[in-house]
Amino acid sequence: MGNNVITPREHVKLRKEFPEYKTTQTLKLKSDVVIIGSGAGGAVAAAELSRNGWQVVLLEEGSYFTPAEFTNDEFLSYARLYRDGGNITVENFSVGILQGRSLGGSTTVNWQTCLYPSLSTTQEWRDEFGLDGYDENEISPYIKEVSLRVGAHQVPSKLINENNSVLARGGRILDMAPEILKNSSRNCIGLGRCGLGCPINAKQSMFLTYIPDALKNGARVISNMRVTKIKDGKKKQVYATFEADPYTKYSENKSIFENIEIEAPVVILSAGAIEGPALLQRSDLGNEWVGRNLKLHPTAAILARYPKKINMHTGPPQSIVIKENKTKKETKDYGFWLEVAPARPASVFSSIPLYGADSFKIANDYLYMHAGIALVRDGADGETQGRVEWEWGKRKVHYTIGPKDGKNLLRGLSKLAQVQTEAGAIELIFPFTEKASPYPVQKKNNYNWILNQDLAPGRMRIFSAHPHGSIQAAASPRQGAIAPNFELYGHSNIFVMDASWYPTGLGVNPQIATMSSVLRASRLLAKEKTERL
To answer: pLDDT by residue (tens digit) across 133-152?
Structure first.
């Protein structure tokens, strides 16, 4: 089958190459391992296992797009590159979730941020869940290896855009110690199109790094195939159906395989914290922890208007972070972070509670707008009120922000308003639905009123781009769904390797943490080839 990604256009070639598939609508394959999902987890596992001689089939529900196909059209990009068109909505409509869906997963559309969890977070994993070896000094060889592969480095000062500079200036005035972030890119020129797919191959997504590594090692990578069920047994069966890109015309429709069935002794699930638990549930796999304790890193934004242009859609999306370092024992480090968002026009209109003339005014002033965000590491109250369920043939996401997490988010928004004011904002637009008009900034504004805002669903616009924790790992099945080696409790040779394993809030963008942990786990699994196969 060669070293190319098997897209729908290649199905006709397979039929010609293998006569047994001339008329059938089902492609049947055998391999050593089936990996479901091609993001930061699945791509790394595919590269590492294939490098060690495993026969690998990597399945991706989304399409494979080349950089030439990445467009600046916001609506088209969200429809093609994001799950549910960029609008996964929880059942009570309180939170919107962004998650990628294309070859490379969310790494194709993420904002490049490269951070590893704090020592206090990894100590929680060890002390409360029996997960050893994740302190940065212990896992540093893997962090260094994946950081080198994706080009992680501190954002150069010349590329720090005005959107981030506003946050830095206001933070310094308030003595909040802004920090420069690390991004994963090479030869970035600051186009600012990370969330729409990088058209110049600067952002080092999985389809530029670990997926090519897997292909060189002989792995089969198949796009546009949605896994519907995993059947357990000594030899696992994985069933997938064709998933078309709505904006692609397939001239050889009759040649496209409608289904794929793959037999393999080992299955690795890397479908993310939303689709992963739903797949396990509809396959009747796993224990009661599958889908529980979903974490979202709840985020809310304040738009600020300035007298000069900000052009927040240009440059690397996130270059600056302001961290609140909590020392109080009861909150550990469940404080807030302040960052920015490169909100494009459609994103702005979907995130502000304004209507009519006020809304059109924002459109006219878009280039003068700054988008600051407050993010919290949810789980300060213990187990979250988030879960994923497969019910009546549908995946459902439930989430209500916890009381302490909500208070932390309000504290973050209060501080963010101060930062934006100190940096010279003349008008603020808050995420509270009761604030249905822009808020004029005065010299001595007091934002303590934010601390008393209602957190009930529908009262504040909350978003998430980091879902995790819904198939959590623990040393005991009484605490988690998977073992410390990421093997699903009760099911030999079914592993979960993605961001869904974190048992407590992560506190950072999960890219580097996911890649590092999966590299270590898949490297250990690779050594067990004879035993596992």
So the answer is: 999 999 999 999 999 999 99
